[in-house]
Amino acid sequence: MSAPPLTGRPLVLDGGLSNELVAQGHAVAGELWTARLLVEDQAAVRAAHAAYVRAGAEVLISASYQASFEGFARHGVDRAAAERLFGDSVRLARAAAGGRRVWVAGSVGPYGAVAADGGEYRGRYGLSVGELVRFHRPRIAALAAAGPDVLALETVPDVVEAEALLRAAEGCGVPVWLSYTVEGGRTRAGQSLEEAFALAAGDDRVLAVGVNCCAPEEVLPAVEVAAATTGKPVVAYPNSGEEWDAAGRRWRGRGRSPAEYAVAWRDAGARLIGGCCRVGPAGIAELAARLAPFR
């Protein structure tokens, strides 16, 4: 496979991998999150990916979002085995396609997600670009070695980490997309979206820029800024819009399908469209149907 062409019809991304794993009865709590099942139950990961393929997803995002060598080590996995697990995350998504034409995105989540302390919704970790490069480069190298079609540098909370991720991906031989998590029309760390997207404007390795893991209402303005700032295709895969009540340990609010908004996003320049947290296969099937006339 090769990286997806993004100049024409929109491609349908998958939804929240953790959603489908939980729906199938698996626990994903802890610092490894979905990557825990790379260690404990790879068949479950493949089955979750396959559910999204059946729903119409054309791009699958690997189970490596919260994976790190440090996290695997705390789970009793040595470095050589951890490298294989990073690669397995790509291979399992590829196998789940079942012969269908599906692209695989190797997920590279932010430092805050790997720290498992909610830092991906704040950014500004107090680390330099160089320190973040050193953290991310081994993860990116392990994923790239497995041959994904693209790397998803995703849920990035600030410009500092975006710069580090792009540097860490230099020379890996795999194109990337860069996707911020946003709130109130700015990055989670408070920078303007013009500044955030401009970082990738002249970088030919970056296939698309956009947003994920945010409220659906945040997407359209961000798509417009991303397209205008970079001239690149845009990636958009928000959450359902529900909010997590940490004290009550439950989700609150009304869930919305990305299908409700997808045509407007497409018209504004989005060419990779899917869902993130709380968007399951049913939501992706609805999205695929809504975008069918444009594909």
From TrEMBL:
Keyword Zinc: yes
EC number: 2.1.1.10
Annotated ranges, domain Hcy-binding: 1-291
Gene Ontology molecular function: methyltransferase activity
Top-level taxon: Bacteria
GO biological process, one term: methylation
Binding residues annotated for Zn(2+), in chain numbering: C213, C276, C277
Keyword Metal-binding on entry: yes
Names of the cofactor(s): Zn(2+)
UniProt keywords, alphabetically: Metal-binding, Methyltransferase, Transferase, Zinc
Enzyme kind, highest EC tier: transferase
PANTHER family for the chain: HOMOCYSTEINE S-METHYLTRANSFERASE-LIKE ISOFORM 1, ZGC:172121
Protein name, UniProt field: Homocysteine S-methyltransferase
